[in-house]
């Protein structure tokens, strides 16, 4: 038994070093990151077409905002993000939320731009 009569599973305990290297706390002011994600998604023609034509239903705009929020959480909670993870998130979101597959290379382009934004955020370039 752990402290206070609770049982702890030590397999789920992460070392402080791993945590510092891989997990970044959400800063009080991440407006640069939020704004950057929003701007990139607002310039993405495929997503904007899906929203405008309501391919995700009447709440298509809300779904695009949820995508932005998911990206923000991904970037703000982890220092280690790959472009493939971003591509997968974008592809999955379009498929599941908008019933849309985009094969014009724009997912990869947007993922690259988002990766650059994430890297700039990590090193403090605003």
From TrEMBL:
Pfam families: WGG
Keywords of the record: rRNA processing
Superkingdom of source: Eukaryota
Keyword rRNA processing: yes
UniProt-listed InterPro entries: Pre-rRNA_process_TSR2
Family to which this protein belongs: Belongs to the TSR2 family.
PANTHER family: PRE-RRNA-PROCESSING PROTEIN TSR2 HOMOLOG
The protein, known as: Pre-rRNA-processing protein TSR2 homolog isoform X2
Species this protein is from: Camelina sativa
């Amino acid at each position: 038994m752990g402290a206070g009569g609770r049982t702890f599973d030590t397999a789920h305990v992460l070392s402080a070093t791993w945590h510092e290297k891989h997990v970044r706390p959400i800063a009080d002011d991440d407006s640069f990151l939020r704004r950057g994600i929003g701007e990139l998604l607002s310039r993405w023609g495929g997503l904007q077409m899906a929203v405008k034509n309501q391919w995700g239903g009447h709440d298509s705009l809300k779904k695009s905002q949820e995508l932005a929020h998911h990206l923000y959480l991904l970037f703000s909670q982890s220092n280690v993000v790959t472009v493939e993870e971003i591509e997968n998130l974008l592809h999955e979101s379009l498929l599941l939320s908008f019933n849309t597959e985009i094969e014009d290379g724009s997912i990869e382009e947007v993922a690259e731009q988002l990766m650059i934004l994430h890297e700039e955020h990590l090193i403090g370039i605003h």
